[in-house]
Amino acid sequence: MFPKDFLWGGAVAANQCEGAYNEDGKGLSIQDVMPRGIKGPRTEKPTEDNMKLIGIDFYHRYKEDIKLFAEMGFKVFRTSIAWSRIFPKGDESKPNEKGLRFYDDLFDECHKYGIEPLVTLSHYETPLYLAEHYDGWINPKMIGFYEKYVTTVFTRYKDKVKYWLTFNEINSVLHSPFMSGGINTPKEKLSQSDLYQAIHHELVASASAVQIAHTINPAFQVGCMILSMPIYPLSPDPSDVIEAMKQDHFNTFFADVQVRGEYPRYLNRYFKKNNIHIRVTEEEKEILKNTVDFVSFSYYVSVCATADPKKNVRGEGNLLGGVPNPILKASEWGWQIDPQGLRYELNVLWDRYQKPLFIAENGLGAKDRLTDDGNGGMTVYDDYRIEYMKDHLIQVGEAIEDGVEVMGYTSWGCIDLVSASTAELAKRYGFIYVDRNDDGSGTLNRYEKKSFGWYRDVIASNGASLYE
């Protein structure tokens, strides 16, 4: 059912696992002043209670962790490059050699075990200096800074990395402009025109990165990455159906531009109605024609939409919330669990774009409990995670049977890491338990969870074990 060259693996982000926030010439990123994640206030400088400053110490322990990934049989490992390791402020003329060398060593370690790196160029890690001195992506100069950065890493790793993603969950900037776009202007003071101008700059930068990548190495495969969340009408009422369509446009337009090379017409009506004006040059229109090779996305949850204001009560759901589906159960964090929504989303994206698809994030965040395994060791009996992933992967198989071209699947947080949304370690996703707690205590030792062996068997059988 799964193609023989299917890319099985796992995913992390540098800012959530590496730590070493000020080592070897690294500059500060926006994450270093976000000790409470998305919803909490930012600080003037890094504070000791920011779990991401140490993360899971992947920076010093990556060899141990890559070996564990290899034991599970990973074909691909998705990670990100911390932009401020390469250009500490973001606007320097020369890169930081120690930062470049770290990723040389990391990618070499992956290849040692036959693991292909999948690298996100910007994963909520804008250099803090660019946010504070340029107001992030509102400023068109950001395009040039990003182009210099991607040219540097494309050139350096042209023989070590084949798969690239330009921006992580690029549509999340609508809801978290500081974390996603490095926009320093407070959200409540940010005009819609400035926000969409920043989005335009990111979209131009993404297209420019595709062009640069294919010039440096024509074999590069460059994808976009969107936060996907199916939006179902809450009822059969046509007004609810139209409302779901309108809300979905806020997600799809980001992919539309990166896949089709131009803005969709439905956006014109929204801009006109809300008096939104952005500057788009003829040169930028030409750059946008450099479209991506594949479409990647995160999938955790689906939501509903309604035109009835009395029923329009938002629930939880990654960065994007929505009206809860009364039929579905939810996780400990209120995210509704909808395996069939993944099959649906794969079909919708395939029908819309006819581009290869990659599931770059999917997984279950839960409060895992480390216990005695009965053999003198420690483990986590995370049958709930196994059930969640099995149900979702079976739906991936169904989508493939439907005719959808799916390149691969990287489970989010394949090793426990610091949550982006809450900045805590209590919300664990991994197959590997990391002994670190939200109060900073712990040995940082790694322990295989029950799901570790389960996922190893799934990969070894190329998905056949899902049906046993």
TrEMBL record:
Q: Name one GO molecular function term.
A: beta-glucosidase activity
What processes in GO biological process is this protein linked to?
carbohydrate catabolic process
Keywords of this protein's UniProt record, alphabetized? Answer: Glycosidase, Hydrolase
Q: Which domain of life is it from?
A: Bacteria
One GO cellular component term: cytosol
Write one Pfam family the protein is assigned to: Glyco_hydro_1
The UniProt family comment states: Belongs to the glycosyl hydrolase 1 family.
Q: What is this protein called?
A: 6-phospho-beta-glucosidase
Protein's organism: Faecalicatena orotica
